[in-house]
Amino acid sequence: MSETRPPQGPPIRAGLGGPGNVEAYPNSDNRGLDLVGGGAGADARPDVRQYDAATILAPETVAAIRQVMERYPVARSAVMPALYLTQAQIGWLPPAALAAVGAVIGIPAADVEETASFYNMYYRQPVGRKIVKVCTSISCFLCGADEVMARFERELGIQVGETTPDGAVTLLRGECLADCHHAPAGQLNDEYLGRLTPDVVDRVLEEVRG
Amino acid sequence: MEPFEPVILRNQVVPNIRDIDVYIADGGYEGLRAALQMQPAEVIETVKKSGLRGRGGAGFPTGMKWGFLPPDSPKPRYLCVNADESEPGTCHDHELIEQNPHQAIEGIIITAYATKAVRAFIYIRGEFYRGALILEEAIAEARQRGFLGEDILGSGYSLDIVVHRGAGAYICGEETALLSSLEGYKGFPRNKPPFPAVAGLYASPTVINNIGTLAHVPPILRRGAEWFAQWTSARTTGPLVVSVSGHVVRPGNYEVPIGITMRELIYDVAGGIRDGNRLKAIVPGGSSAAMIGPDKLDTPVEFDALAAAGTMLGSAGVIVMDETTCMVAATLRMAEFYKEESCGKCTPCREGTGWMVDILRRLEQGTGRMQDVTLLVSVANNIAGKSFCLLGDASAAPVVSSIKLFREEYEAHVRAHGCPLRSDWIRAGLNMMPDRVLARS
């Protein structure tokens, strides 16, 4: 049950929606895809059989990965950027995508999975179209991060680590986001939000629900 | 001594220094020009003479580190730049990268030239997405002006800088874990020796420096080692970039002359404790540094003085806690971080960080036992020094130091069957602050 067309994320959104990670590689012609876009419905367990390693990567993604490989003396070093590029296309990293990345780079799928599973910015299950991270490490904790997290949980009706049923937003805990002077700090997709005052939280909620 | 003006966080005094033209007008890339007039060994000598010590945490003399590269290895040399700033309480590299990227890039080019590196990699934490874009842009601008690429400024030296994004693992700020990650593997630390200088990235001779450290290099080359050493306290020289967070009036990143005291930093620079509260504890160097009490306020914020006070300057992330802070809850939060971020390679750290969280949590929730306090210290001491890398030691530091300073508060949690600082109890007039709990017992 394989699709012939590679899955695509939605087009780039302006403002806080933020650009996809793929823009970190300006040489790539794969701009305009969203890191967290295109995820399957949040509640639905994804049917990973719909993905086929042979067709899951868009040709532009493959080209971008090959370009990134040029930057390193050893191809395996391109695994992390390749995973970002793949995630920017699909929205998350189904097993077939890991195998496909391995095929492009020339290493076994298991090796790609080993790396992907170690880092928490690679999503191995579908995530919401937007991702809210609230930092709850010590400096933010001292400045009321737990209350901010509780408010997000309450208003979104989910627990930290979960995605809203409509697939709009995933709420995550940040482990020290290195924005301690703006404590309590947070991110919406890849953008820092500054100090999470009640006003900022309002704005974020509006943005993710919109 | 000249009146003090930021040297590293120039963005705080020069608007738009992110722009390469503004940076050049402020003297930018003159350090590079000066370096390229010298032999690489002379550049290393100059940095050695300046006394610059690494700002990433260990405070190792930077020039000396560069000197460790084997002179006759047939393999190419690499420079890895650590921009994986993740130490809780530390956010000054974040500001440097976003606001003054060219100074970091210039420092990287000079360092690569001095160490004869064939390529430089900036390992930047995944969350600094904007920072990665800004660095990429700065690299492209530098290349356009001939500061990067083939035959830099006619010197015959060529260099490329690759920006590599991490993906949310604190451990990758540890230098050998960073190398594993950059090679495309899990971020597992490696045992030393061999040291990275001998067998680092791709088993080649490798220099690893913090990005903040390298931003100190251009002004040293431009204005000289003596100029840099005008700020000296014990064996630390130069200006110090420090983050202050927590319960202060003005949290922020500050650049100060080395040697100012913790009191000056907290009360004069950062505006003192919020709401006029009393100071309870200070974590001086990111959460991996042992906490100290108000009695240490007159300690200079500098490597050796803080080491003598039983803690460390670490990553210069000062976390301030006022009297309303429950030390068990705060320590629990720090312990949770290390539990989450332990890479799982070494058993003492993987298991121990989990046990410390369990014990601290039951103390905070009111089901702790009196012997738990001793048990915590025992667990902590069985992690520290018994793992490959320093994450284990780091996880033990907040636990051991907070028990040392606030043992009675831990015991009060056991007696009160919960946190004596619980806000609902205080509101109900049941203030069970440790002194009162102790007085009653």
What brief labels describe this structure?
heterodimer, A: 210 residues, alpha+beta, elongated, B: 441 residues, alpha/beta, 4-stranded parallel beta sheet, 4-stranded mixed beta sheet, 10 strands, disordered C terminus
Give the helices and strands, then pairings.
The complex is a heterodimer of chains A (210) and B (441).
Chain A: H1 59-69, H2 79-90, H3 95-105, H4 109-118, E1 130-135, H5 138-142, H6 145-156, E2 169-174, E3 186-188, E4 191-192, H7 198-209
Parallel strand pairs in A: 1-2
Antiparallel strand pairs in A: 1-3, 3-4
Helix pairs in contact in A: 1-2, 2-3, 3-4
Chain B: H1 20-25, H2 30-36, H3 40-50, H4 62-67, E1 78-83, H5 92-99, H6 101-114, E2 119-124, H7 129-144, E3 161-165, H8 175-182, H9 196-199, E4 206-210, H10 211-214, H11 217-223, H12 225-228, E5 232-233, E6 236-237, E7 239-246, E8 252-257, H13 262-269, E9 279-283, H14 303-308, E10 317-322, H15 327-341, H16 347-365, H17 371-383, H18 391-415, H19 423-427, H20 434-440
Parallel strand pairs in B: 1-2, 1-4, 2-3, 7-10
Antiparallel strand pairs in B: 5-6, 7-8, 9-10
Helix pairs in contact in B: 2-6, 2-11, 3-6, 5-6, 15-16, 15-18, 16-17, 16-18, 17-18, 18-20
Please give a structural write-up.
The complex is a heterodimer of chains A (210) and B (441). In chain A, 35% of the residues lie in helices and 8% in strands. Chain A has helices at residues 59-69, 79-90, 95-105, 109-118, 138-142, 145-156, 198-209, and strands at 130-135, 169-174, 186-188, 191-192. Chain A has a 4-stranded mixed beta sheet with strand order 2-1-3-4. In chain A, helix 2 (79-90) packs across helix 3. Chain A starts with 58 loop residues before the first helix and ends with a helix. The relative contact order of chain A is 0.15. In chain B, the strands form 3 sheets. Chain B has a 4-stranded parallel beta sheet, with helices on both faces. Residues 430-441 of chain B have low confidence and may be disordered. At the A-B interface, helix 2, helix 4, helix 5 and strand 4 of A face helix 7, strand 3, strand 7, strand 10 and helix 15 of B.
